[in-house]
Structures are given as structure tokens and as C-alpha cells.
Design goal:
7-stranded mixed sheet; about 200 residues
Length: about 200
């Protein structure tokens, strides 16, 4: 069956495909269906993920998977947080702006975490299932690594000392990442959806 992944970000779509490997879905993106990404106007990851999932499900009449995720930096009082994707106009500009804002913050005081809420909405947008994922770490002093996307070249996860997310092999990144953890929490429901074509309401 088709499952819409409500993103226009090709890097995110690749990650979701890898994390959900083995499930009997045909994953399609907003671009595949000619749909635009809805606004994310809310102040929390939970609200934004749910709003995006339900809006895209209603537009497409497909079961829809959406997430809202971001980088929360201790020294920036949790910023950029839900505004991570809107922090600047491109991945490189976002990374440079973050480094500039942390320029006076020494190593050891650059604690941060990635957070993700994943929402799964029924085709009519009336049923929604959610899961969260988090990974803790530090912000590096300069970008490193060619993998991943977004802030990955700057984020040093605690569980992979000395390496940024962009220096990890895809399988290792997906195992410990915030998005990977949220999707793994939803995997039993997704397995049931793929097998039965529906889920009980809640």
C-alpha cells in the first residue's frame, strides 16, 4: 500500500526509506503527488507534526507519516528548536549562523539535542498516532563529514564520541538518531498497517 511521507526534503525521505526498510509500503513524497508542504505555525514539535500529518492525509486520501524535528541548543535556550528549518535559507547558512551564535561558547558548554516527533494520520485525518525520539550531544566548532543533511555535520552525538552525525555510516546514524528512534517506536503500528491496511481508532 502507499504511504505518504509528508516532506519535500530529499535527505529526510532517504532516511525514512532506510529506517522503514522491510515494511511493505510504497513510500511517496509530497513532490511525487504534486503537493506543497503545509505551514508549521505552532510552538511545539507535537503540534506541528500532527497538523502536517492530518493536513497532508486529508489532501492525499492516504495514510500519512509526518515529522517535526529540530536542534535544541542549551546555550541558545533551546533554540533554534521548532524554527530549525527556518533559521536561515539553506543548510550551509543555517550551520554558519549557528556557529556564529556559539562563537564565544567554549567546548564542553555546547550541549544540545536533536528532537523529533513523528505523527501517523489516517486518510481522513481523524486518527493520529505519535512517537518521539531524542539524541543528546554537543555542537562541534566546525562542520565535519559528508553524510546526512541539515545540522548533521555540526552535531556530535554522545553515543558516537568524536564523530559528527555526518561522519556516521547511514545504518549507525539511523539507529541512534532522533528520527530513527521515533520511527522505530512507531514500527509495530506501521507493520500492522502494512499487513492489514488499517489501524483501530484512538
Amino acid at each position: 500500500m502507499k504511504l505518504l511521507v509528508a516532506t519535500s526534503n530529499p535527505g529526510k525521505l532517504v532516511e525514512v526509506r532506510e529506517i522503514l526498510g522491510g515494511l511493505d509500503f510504497e513510500l511517496v513524497s509530497l513532490a511525487d503527488l504534486g503537493l506543497s508542504a503545509p505551514e508549521e505555525p505552532f510552538a511545539t514539535f507535537h503540534e506541528n507534526a500532527a497538523a502536517k500529518a492530518t493536513a497532508c492525509a486529508a489532501r492525499s486520501s492516504l495514510w500519512t507519516l509526518a515529522d517535526d524535528s529540530g536542534l535544541c541548543v542549551d546555550a541558545l535556550h533551546g533554540g533554534p528548536g521548532v524554527r530549525s528549518a527556518r533559521f536561515a535559507d539553506s543548510d550551509e547558512a543555517r550551520r554558519q549562523k549557528l556557529l556564529e551564535q556559539l562563537r564565544a561558547i567554549p567546548a564542553g558548554q555546547r550541549g544540545a539535542h536533536f528532537f523529533c516527533t513523528v505523527a501517523l494520520a489516517s486518510p481522513d485525518g481523524q486518527r493520529i498516532f505519535r512517537a518521539d525520539g531524542r539524541v543528546d550531544g554537543q555542537i562541534a566548532s566546525a562542520p565535519r563529514g559528508a553524510g546526512g543533511f541539515g545540522y548533521d555535520p555540526l552535531f556530535l552525538p554522545d553515543e558516537a564520541p568524536g564523530r559528527t552525525m555526518a561522519e556516521l555510516e547511514p545504518a549507525e546514524k539511523n539507529r541512534l538518531s532522533h528520527r530513527g528512534r521515533a520511527l522505530q517506536s512507531l514500527r509495530p503500528l506501521l507493520y500492522r498497517l502494512a499487513r492489514e491496511g488499517d489501524l483501530p481508532g484512538r
